[in-house]
Amino acid sequence: MSNDTPTRPLDVPREGIPEVVNEKIDDAVARLASGSGPIAVDTERAMGIRYSNRAYLIQVRREGTGTILIDPIGIEDRLGGLREVLKEEWILHAADQDLPCLHELGLYPTKVFDTELAALMLGFEKVSLQAITEEVTGWTLAKEHSNSDWSQRPLPPPLLAYAALDVELLHELREELTDQLVEAGRFEWFEQECEEVRLRKPRLPSKQPWRRASRQAGLRDRRALAMLRELWGARDNLARKRDLAPGKVLPNKVLAELAGRKPRSRSDVVNSSLLRSRQRRGDVDTWWEAIEIAWNLDERALPERRYTESKDPYPPVNRWERHDRDAAARWESLRSTVLELADELGLRQDVLMKPAVQKMAAWTGWTSEEDLAAIFLAEGARPWQIEQVTGPIHVNARQAGLI
Prior knowledge:
Number of strands: 8
Helix content: 40-55%
Distance between the termini: 47 Å
Radius of gyration: 26 Å
Structural class: alpha/beta
Low-confidence stretches: none
Largest sheet: 6 strands, mixed
Oligomer: single chain
């Protein structure tokens, strides 16, 4: 689409706002099965509001079917038919955001077309659904409801319209972006990226998630760290019971500040300026119990001041010069080569090769182009990435006397 072409606002689905399907899920499945071709899929969650990352609404659209909005709450045991009919190619935007909650419901695609990945492979400056849709189709989608409470029932018409619009144009985007990828000679690259997302294993949860709040608050006292750890666990239990996002129970900043004050008594907690609202004061026994547990811990049971969950065999890059000068030199050469190649291809450097993969190769070292390619492959790089970067990185490192 030309930059001079005026955009057109699309605030309501062109076929009207679809009804929400719950009890009549079997009828919806039959209707979806009567359509043909890939299926546009999206979800709406209530992150930051509810405890879980579950899907509170599933939007699907197919040629010959139109858009169907599915409320999966309470019918999770009746989704067998939907699982079967959805064993097709899915068109999604930012698939890595939606696939986990769909997997929780037993819904899996056989192939993925990710419009966000397509935009990244084409070097788009902005890759949000709204930005891509506007650039490719000329339609402007409203995005003012993205942070709404999708767990509320019934969902009001403005939210339903917003949800339906998220899949309204995905088929058109797929067609246009496919043409652009083929013309750019990058469709095979794109397919490899989509398959990686489809098969990606879920990230393991942090073993000590409270550590981030401690670093942000600058907590170093080991007793205070223990209090934060206990308060974090207590808050998580409350959040799970109430089905609320933990930050809705007590924000991380408040949790860390309370731990940093190291209250000596329940009254210290009650009188704390941090617990101003009635609900926060209502939980004072929970907070004091957690703090008291931390006070009673033996010194040897207190958490260490420094902790890292990184499994990387290398230290932070800014320390490489002290630990291994050869690795530091390889990193400088490798890094500059990737940045230059990414610039030539019009790609973000992390799309061309993830920094973690680059670091592993630089730290490990290699003696031949084949060795370097093997490192990249073992670290999860896709064939197209290996083909693009391996030769230039090896040549530049050899010319610099690093091999």
